[in-house]
Amino acid sequence: MLIIELVVATVLAAANIYLGVVSVRMPLADRFWTGSGAFPLIVAVALTVCSLIWAAESALKLRRANIRDELDVFIRPFREGRVMCVRFLSIVVLSLIYILVLMPWLKFTLSTLLFLFATTSAYGRLKPLTALVLSVAVTAGVYSAFRYVLMLPLP
């Protein structure tokens, strides 16, 4: 498990560094806080620090742990059956459909609602009504936060 943590933390750190670089390239306003890149830069820096701390902790734990046991934990789901692989690949495919197909076609609100409903009902093992209520609540919360608190447009 520590190997997976180390890989995920490293990938997240790299992605957040990229987010920071992209946000620095955004146009600046008179003051830093009013610029369009201020919020993404602050988030990128905070998440990069957290990811690097996580990677360092995982690397230290991995150094102290038995590497054969860790490799066995990493490989076990692939040996025990295809269920874990199928679940992982289906989440990846659903995420790609959400990003590449639904977001451009249906915009944020409806595509997020459909994506959350599909994933929570399929993988959260929730009843359809509970999954629908949860999907509507999360979508409304994210929309409200971006629209009214951060005052940023959504796609």
SS class: mainly alpha
Which residues sit in consecutive blocks of at least 5 with pLDDT less than 50?
Answer: none
The radius of gyration over CA amounts to 19 Å
Q: What number is the mean pLDDT?
A: 80
Helical proportion?
over 70%
What's the number of helices?
5
Order of helices and strands: HHHHH
Compact overview of the structure:
The chain is an all-alpha fold and 155 residues long. It has helices at residues 2-24, 38-64, 67-80, 83-123, 128-149.
Task: Explain what the structure shows.
With 155 residues, the chain is mainly alpha-helical. The chain is 82% helix and 0% strand. It has helices spanning 2-24, 38-64, 67-80, 83-123, 128-149. α1 (2-24) packs antiparallel against α2 (38-64) and α4 (83-123) packs across α5. 8% of the residues are buried.
Q: Can you lay out the helices and strands and say which pair or pack?
A:
Blueprint: H1 2-24, H2 38-64, H3 67-80, H4 83-123, H5 128-149
Helix pairs in contact: 1-2, 4-5
What are the key terms here?
5 helices; 82% helix
